[in-house]
Specification:
The protein is an alpha+beta fold. The chain folds into two domains: 13-153, Nuclear Transport Factor 2, Chain: A (Roll), CATH 3.10.450.50; 159-299, Lipocalin. The protein has helices spanning 32-50, 54-58, 78-92, 158-163, and strands at 13-15, 66-69, 75-77, 96-109, 112-123, 129-140, 143-153, 171-176, 180-188, 195-203, 206-218, 223-230, 235-243, 246-254, 260-271, 274-284, 287-289, 295-299. The strands form three sheets. A ten-stranded antiparallel beta barrel has the order 8-9-10-11-12-13-14-15-16-18. A hairpin with a 2-residue loop joins strand 16 (274-284) and strand 17.
C-alpha cells in the first residue's frame, strides 16, 4: 500500500529536509504548559484539516517552510503556496480525513520542541494510511508553529490480517456464577501480531489455577495456532479452523505429570457480548473421557 505523508502537507507533501540531517540536540521533559500547548496545536491542526480549511491549516506552519509536493514534484515555499496546495487537495479528495495522536513531547529550549506521534489518513472505504511522525515546533509570538516533519510508514501487518477474524474474542469475559467462575482477559499484543488470553479459575473467591494462552499465525503451516501454559505446569498446542460459524481448536496436551492428551474446543460467537464454549473428544493417556457441557461465556 502506498503511504502518503500526513502532517507535512497532510497527504501529498513532504519536507525538503529531515530531522535526521540536524546535529543531535539535548532534550528534556517539557513543562506542563509546553506539553499542553503542543498537544493543543496538534488537535487544532487535525480540526482544521477535517474542516478542509486550507487557510487555517497553512497558518499552523512557519512562514519560511519549504516543501516538495509529492503529486507534482513542485517546490512549495510559504503559507500562501501551501494554502493553495491544501485547497487543491481538498477539492480533489472531498472525503479525506485525518486522525493524529501525540505520543510524546520533548523540550529542546523554551521556544523549540519536538513532538512524536502517529497519524492516519482516511478516505471513504479505502484502507487507512498510517505513519509514525516526528515534528519540530518553534514558538513565535506566543504560538507554536510547525517547522518540519519526518515520517515513517507503518508496515501493514499481515499477521493481523490473518487474526482479525478473532476480534470477537477481545475483552474481559466470565464463565460461571458467584461460587465458581473462570475469568478471561483477552487482548492484542503490541503491533497486533498475537492475541493473549489470560484466565483464572476461582471458587469461593479463591483462585484455584490460572494460565496464559497465546494465539498467532503460523506462516509455515498457513494456519492459526495457539499455545497455552497453565499454572500446574502443563501446556497445550492447538490449531484453529472456522466452519459454519464455529471455531474448532484441535489440541494436544502435555500434562504436568508427563502424561499426554488431546481434545477439541468448540467456540461459537452468539453476539458482541457472549459466545459458547465446549470441550469434546477428550482423550487422556489413551482413555476417552466424557464431553464437557456447553457453557455460555459473557462479556463483563
Amino acid at each position: 500500500m502506498k503511504t502518503t505523508t500526513v502532517l507535512s502537507l497532510a497527504l501529498l507533501m513532504a519536507p525538503l529536509s529531515s530531522i535526521a540531517d540536524e546535529p543531535p540536540a539535548e532534550s528534556q521533559p517539557p513543562s506542563e504548559s509546553q506539553d499542553a500547548e503542543i498537544r493543543a496545536a496538534v488537535a487544532s491542526y487535525v480540526e482544521a484539516f477535517n474542516k478542509h480549511d486550507a487557510v487555517a491549516l497553512a497558518a499552523h506552519w512557519s512562514p519560511e517552510a519549504v516543501y516538495i509536493s509529492r503529486s507534482s514534484g513542485e517546490r512549495i515555499t510559504g503559507r500562501e503556496a501551501m494554502e493553495q496546495e491544501f485547497a487543491a487537495i481538498f477539492e480533489q479528495r472531498p472525503d479525506v480525513r485525518l486522525e493524529a495522536k501525540s505520543v510524546a513531547v520533548q523540550a529542546i529550549s523554551p521556544n523549540i520542541a519536538v513532538e512524536h506521534g502517529t497519524a492516519r489518513v482516511l478516505r471513504g472505504d479505502s484502507e487507512p494510511e498510517e505513519t509514525n511522525y516526528t515534528a519540530v515546533y518553534m514558538k513565535r509570538d506566543g504560538k507554536w508553529l510547525l517547522d518540519r516533519i519526518s515520517e515513517e510508514a507503518v508496515v501493514v501487518n499481515s499477521r493481523y490480517e490473518r487474526l482479525k477474524e478473532l476480534q470477537w474474542l477481545i475483552g474481559d469475559w466470565i464463565d460461571g456464577d458467584g461460587e465458581g467462575a473462570i475469568r478471561i482477559e483477552c487482548n492484542w499484543t503490541a503491533n497486533n501480531n498475537y492475541i493473549t488470553r489470560r484466565y483464572t479459575v476461582s471458587r469461593d473467591g479463591e483462585i484455584q489455577s490460572s494460565g496464559l494462552q497465546i494465539i498467532g499465525w503460523d506462516p509455515k503451516g498457513q494456519s492459526i495456532r495457539s499455545w497455552l501454559f497453565d499454572s500446574d505446569g502443563g501446556f497445550v498446542s492447538g490449531t484453529w479452523t472456522n466452519k459454519n460459524d464455529h471455531w474448532y481448536v484441535q489440541s494436544t496436551a502435555t500434562l504436568a505429570d508427563g502424561g499426554s492428551g488431546s481434545f477439541t474446543s468448540v467456540f461459537q460467537p452468539i453476539d458482541g457480548d457472549s459466545y459458547t464454549w465446549q470441550k469434546i473428544n477428550q482423550i487422556v493417556d489413551g482413555q476417552l473421557l466424557p464431553n464437557l457441557d456447553e457453557v455460555v461465556v459473557t462479556r463483563q
